[in-house]
Amino acid sequence: MAIQDASIARDYYQGSHRRRTASRWRVRRDVLAKLVLTVAFYAALWRATGMWYGLPANFDDGASVDPLPMKLMLYSLIPLSGLYFLLEQRQFIRTFSRISPLIGVVAISCLTSIVFSIDRGASLKGLAAVIVLALPPLLYRARYGNVEAFRILGRFAIAAAFINVLYTAAFPQFAIMRGSYAGMVKGAFYHKNTLGQFCSVSFVCLLSTQKLGRLRYSTLVRWAAMLCLLALIVATKSSTAVVLTMFGSVMLYAIRIIHVYPNRLFRSFVVALLFLLVGFAASFIYLGVASAVAEAFGKDLTFSGRTNIWEQLFPLIWDRPLTGYGFAMFRQPDVMEEYVKVTFDARSTHNTYLELALNIGIPGIGAWVLFLVTRLFRKMTIVEADQERSGARRKEIVIIILIMLGSMTEAGMMLAPFILWPHTVIALSELRPRLLANRRPREA
Question: What are the structural domain ranges in the chain?
Fold first, then answer.
């Protein structure tokens, strides 16, 4: 009996030891997975902004838009995403297990456009960069939820605000533009418009959706960063950035009125009514405000010659309506020089919808816009009990609206490895965090 009891005890303690070892490995794996995703997330944000020292203040100086450190940072996202796949294969697969059919149509359009591209090499590189840059924010949002994702966005926005103010003060020869944009601040960014777009969306990300509690040091830092962002927006002299900041701030709190009503059917009715009203009034309000802001900066309603570019590019859509000219083609300087003849150097289409129609064709841009509208409608009608998640969802809604509005006058705001692509990916994601159910008891 003693020998049998000892055998049972040995089996029991060995099993208990194995369970403890497996539990410790799961904890270490979770910690390592979060570290990998966090590093990749910050790297993706930095790569998207393109901030770097010494970017020229005048485009005529001929510096590359994508310097070597930015390329290396983009390449580093590949092994980081691969390492996360090895750590959490099920979660990685889960992230891509429920893809909208509309995204499938967009993907097919992108691949088809590459087949018929006028430069397949450039199109392949452009699509690869978009996918690689989308992975870290998408995986982080799916793993830890929108609240945690916006904490990362907020920390990065605070750091970027202070960095750009200090950079402008220390290196005005690089931070303040010359040539046709003389006197406009671009900070550590390549162009003043990208700085304006980033500051507008970052300002909305830093706005609080909770009641003001006890004053903390972190709150003072956040307020100081928001003041820096506002100062940078004004210094860029970007009418689009000013309009987006005003619209975003108002919408963030206006949407809260809809979320007061818990009935989803009533919300759907209100949202549908708002879409109709906004559809009729947006053209008058947006153009009116934009005109006033543009005049304040010494510009006109044609948005600094953008309409001249659009008039030349729009007819090209009907030459290749189904396949487009190739993914990312109308972001290439030589392509723009071939098809656009203006008195100034037109480096982009200055309209994301037009750019996507030219790149991937009408079916692709149609499916993408429909996906944006349906996802926006869904996010506005979902009832969210938790206040933090509800506030983060409102920010997602505002970001989608701002990007859709900003895309009217700026290129590269969607399906492009640029400034707001990580924000777009987070805002459009719908996956709930895996450990949400496990966190609720501890939060209570």
Answer: 20-431
pLDDT tens-place string over residues 16-72: 555 556 567 566 788 899 999 999 999 999 999 989 998 888 866 554 556 788 888
Helix (H/G/I), strand (E/B), else coil: 408: coil
Half-sphere exposure (CA, 13 Å, Cβ side) for 441?
3
Q: pTM of the full predicted structure? A: 0.84
The token pair at 194 is 């990208």
Structure tokens at 159: 């750091």
Helix (H) or strand (E) run with residue 103 in it: helix 101-115
Residue 40 CA from chain centroid, whole number:
15
Residue 185 DSSP symbol? B
Amino acid at the residue 132: V
For residue 314, give the nearest of 369, 368, 351 by alpha carbon.
Answer: 351
User: What single string gives the DSSP state of each residue in 305-329?
Assistant: THHHHHHHHGGGGGGSTTT-S-TTG
Rounded to whole angstroms, how far apart are CA atoms 313 and 336?
A: 9
What tokens were used for 50? 């393109």
